[in-house]
Automatic annotation (TrEMBL):
This is Testisin-like. CDD domains: Tryp_SPc. It holds the Pfam family Trypsin. Residues 54-297 form the Peptidase S1 domain.
């Protein structure tokens, strides 16, 4: 790394409360968040322990980004990033699995700062999970709808270094022009494929969220390049220097809201890495909330099991879950 109303939200909350047995009743403070999915099938999300933030593309510290996942295709030694949504599901980018869709070949490492933990590191071994299913968005074409969900073979054990991230359901425009969102990953340091040096620590960088009109203007100069669609958004710096790069794909872009961390984007594509007027492009999670909820709630089945869905709809309406509209 180089430096959508009310009833829908209610249904989302009901679906989420039904799926995971480990999820406790939300506190008033969490429930009041309204359209922001503060609890995606899990215990309170978006919490972390760590030191004061460091500005720029620098090495991180263990526990600062406890939802960060390292995804590996063991046969071809491929690497992508991901983020922990709950005890059984990880979010990543669809293009990571275009060539290698066999779930049995992928593993997910959680809770580690280094990309290459020692073979003697029992802790790393205990927090390495097999993947049983990969669900790629049905509309994924190239970098359009570049989002995928991985179901793990066994439930994740939470620790202070392994926690789920919150997911942002309201539009990413809420974060427009904020310069204090963060991207993390173990990708190369430059588009010339300069690798991470030992000890191969996770890196973090602050980025500014741009509007798509400005981003498309920048990307068209001086020649017409890829177009940023509604399902995407841009982040970085017009002068370059802060960006994601190869190997960071699928990783999270997160922003702090009232002390909780929300993932609003997934590292997707870019023109080079850290070039001036070439911001990075990210999958806009708010455009895919329906798909995420449907996939997780149905366990990847094309449709929700009818008896369970009917049970969902009999749950009393709880206005406080909706928050302001």
């Amino acid at each position: 790394m180089v430096a959508r109303g009310g009833m829908l939200l209610l249904l989302m909350a009901l679906v989420l409360s039904w799926v995971g047995p480990e999820k406790p009743a939300p506190t008033d403070a969490v429930a009041a968040e309204g359209p922001r999915l503060t609890q995606l099938l899990s215990t309170p999300c978006g919490l972390r322990k760590g030191h004061t933030l460091i500005v720029g593309g620098v090495a991180s510290s263990r526990g600062r980004w406890p939802w960060q996942a390292a995804l590996r295709e063991v046969q071809h030694r491929l690497l992508c990033g991901g983020s922990l949504l709950n005890r059984r599901w990880v979010l990543s980018a669809a293009h990571c699995f275009a060539r290698f869709p066999d779930a049995s070949k992928w593993t997910v490492q959680l809770g580690e700062l280094t990309l290459h933990p020692s073979v003697w590191n029992l802790r790393a071994y205990l927090h390495r999970y097999r993947v049983t299913d990969i669900f790629v968005h049905p509309g994924a074409r190239g970098y359009s709808n570049d989002i995928a969900l991985l179901r793990l073979a066994s439930p994740v054990t939470y620790t202070k270094y392994i926690q789920p991230v919150c997911v942002q359901a309201s539009p990413s425009s809420e974060f427009l022009h904020r310069p204090d969102c963060w991207v993390t990953g173990w990708g190369v340091l430059h588009e010339d494929l300069t690798p991470l040096p030992p000890p191969y620590h996770l890196r973090e960088v602050q980025v500014t969220i741009m509007n798509n009109t400005r981003c498309n203007y920048l990307l068209k100069q001086p020649t017409v390049l890829h177009r940023v669609e509604e399902s995407m958004f841009c982040a970085g710096a017009e002068g370059g220097s802060t960006d994601a790069c190869r190997g960071d794909s699928g990783g999270p872009l997160v922003c702090d809201l009232d002390g909780l961390w929300y993932q609003i984007g997934i590292v997707s594509w870019g023109v080079g890495c850290g070039r001036p007027n070439r911001p990075g492009v990210y999958t806009n999670i708010s455009q895919h909330i329906h798909w995420i909820l449907k996939t997780v709630a149905s366990g990847g089945s094309p449709r929700l099991d009818l008896p369970r869905l009917l049970l969902l709809l009999t749950v009393p309406w709880a206005p406080r879950l909706l928050g302001p509209t």
